[in-house]
Amino acid sequence: MKIGILGAMEEEIHLLGRQMTGSSSEIRGKREYLHGQLFGHDIYLVFSRWGKVAASATATTLIERYGVDYLIFTGVAGGVDPQLNIGDIVIADNLIQHDMDVSFLPQMKEFEIPLLGRADFPVDSREVEKAVMAAENWLRQDLIKQVTSEALKEFAITAPRVVCGTIASGDQFISSNDKVQQLRKKIPNLCCVEMEGAAVAQVAYEYGIPCLVLRTVSDKADDDAIIDFPRFITSVAAFFTCGSVLRLLKEW
Ligand code: SAH
């Protein structure tokens, strides 16, 4: 199996890349695709950039040019479920494109993807289960070895959890309580919002390959969503998702 790992944080790609053995790289369409091994798996690793177009172009290249047959997407997200806190890890069990709306056409529901006949992309429950276990093991065993207590304190992270649920993706950074309420009303079991996951899930679905999306909650998508992003990513989030992905590959 060839696994494609796409990250929306350069720092996390950098951390994963440092662990890879026998790596070589190629530049295509303004992305650097790193090829190598992680825990005996054949891996293609790439910084996807942000947004649905960037992520789907990258996912398609991974499949078409490098022949990957499994996609993993990682990054940060805005937690919209009030139970979620900054630093929690979310594993998608379903993905929706929240800015897709052609419901003015007869028989089309809101969020339905034109010509595909579906509005969401569920993830295989065995794959979700594997990712949840890996992330939980990372939090339990590796968190305090990899992230400083000062960084955890700075972002008020006390007891981070792993949660699975629906992730909604769209081409906008959401930082509005009203928008969060609107989306929660329309999308059942909505956990968090981000800008890439459901686009990658659509590409994976169209090519008939599995796809996993893991996210660290960086903000609550509310009126105070703009935190010190660069600092949160370098000192916290990159370790959370990179650590969970490494655990997943180790325990595969
Ligand atoms: N890493 C950048 C910030 C990028 S923000 C920096 O250092 O400044 C966009 C990224 O964060 C995307 O990958 C998106 O998926 C994710 N994201 C986090 N919180 C989000 C929110 N509230 N709404 C939408 N996307 C969010």
- Return Rg in Å: 17 Å
Large-scale geometry: globular
Helix content: 25-40%
Which class do the helix and strand fractions yield?
alpha/beta
Largest sheet: 5 strands, mixed, barrel
Bound molecules: S-adenosyl-L-homocysteine
Averaging pLDDT over every residue, what do you get? 96
Low-confidence stretches: none
Number of helices: 8
End-to-end distance: 12 Å
Strand order of the largest sheet: 5-9-8-6-10
Architecture blueprint of SSEs:
Elements lengths: L1 E6 L2 H10 L1 E8 L2 E8 L2 E7 L4 H13 L5 E10 L9 E9 L22 E3 L2 H17 L1 H4 L2 H6 L7 E8 L7 H10 L3 E5 L2 H11 L3 E9 L9 H23 L1
Parallel strand pairs: 1-4, 1-5, 5-10, 6-8, 8-9
Antiparallel strand pairs: 2-3, 3-4, 5-9, 6-7, 6-10
Helix pairs in contact: 1-8, 2-7, 3-8
Bound molecules: S-adenosyl-L-homocysteine (SAH).
What can you tell me about this protein's structure?
This protein is an alpha/beta fold. It is built from eight helices and ten strands. The protein has helices at 10-19, 52-64, 125-141, 143-146, 149-154, 177-186, 197-207, 229-251, and strands spanning 2-7, 21-28, 31-38, 41-47, 70-79, 89-97, 120-122, 162-169, 190-194, 211-219. A five-stranded mixed barrel has the order 5-9-8-6-10. Strand 3 (31-38) and strand 4 form a beta hairpin. Helix 1 (10-19) runs parallel beside helix 8, helix 2 (52-64) runs parallel beside helix 7 (197-207) and helix 3 packs across helix 8 (229-251). The model has no long low-confidence stretch (mean pLDDT 96). Bound molecules: S-adenosyl-L-homocysteine. The site of S-adenosyl-L-homocysteine (SAH) has 21 residues, from strand 5, strand 9, strand 10 and helix 8.
